[in-house]
Amino acid sequence: MDRPELxxxxxxxxAVLAEELHFGRxxxxxxxxxxxxxxxxRRLEEKVGHPLFDRGPARVALTPAxxxxxxxxxxxxxxxxxGLRAARRVGAGELGVLRIGFAASLAxxxxxxxxxTYRQRFPDVELDVREMTSSPQLTALREGAIDIGxxxxxxxxxxxxxxxxVLREPFVAVLPTGHALAAARTVPLGALADEPFVLLPRAVxxxxxxxxxxxxxxxxxxxxxxxxAVEWQTLCALVQAGLGVTLAxxxxxxxxxxxxxxxxxxxxxxxxxxxxxxxxxxxxxxVANLLSVVGEER
Length: 298
Description:
The protein is built from 9 helices and 12 strands. It is of the alpha/beta class.
């Protein structure tokens, strides 16, 4: 980019004098004495090669060259002012695009409140919200395809990411309504030992899959997995069809399907962890502002 011929201070002085058409008032507006203003205008006229003002004993008026330059000077000053304001807002995380990945089940819990609070604080940030399971979220974060992840059971061994727990949610047993255990208010996990299970594929959420299998192991059995599906609604439909039972986060109870019952389990302390994830080396103010509105563990 070539060096600009006209210094910004001289353009500003020219635009103010063109509005006031009086050196004294223009100098007062600019906060300088009249002689320095006159010097700036003379230097600008030297750059242009023509007088910009007619200076008479009783009045100051723009010359044809001055009238031609004025709109361009105003545009340049206005564009620079707009650019500075936009740059400051981007630097403060008040403008831009924030890309967020989220696990589908979190649309039933923390996601709506988080997005609502963020939009109230930063209404001019565009949110690019993408539904994806936990493993693809971590891959997308690593590759820079998303800026924030909202997932279940974040891995302990990932040092390149930061995780902030926002919820620890109980598990429920998902049963056909005709199942004998559906008559109980609480289901001991060991009572499901002989039942066929339908679960998420491990590849899309290994930590959550292993958490569920681990709870079964703690209850003394390994689940016999007879079906898999990526979406919780599909898993609930498989339960409805009588293909098995499953364990799910308690928020899945909001999926209303005839023929499906949701029951608390024992041990009652069994929880699934929900966390916000981000790249530790990401210095984006958009990410920092999102983290500022994320509540700690509830």
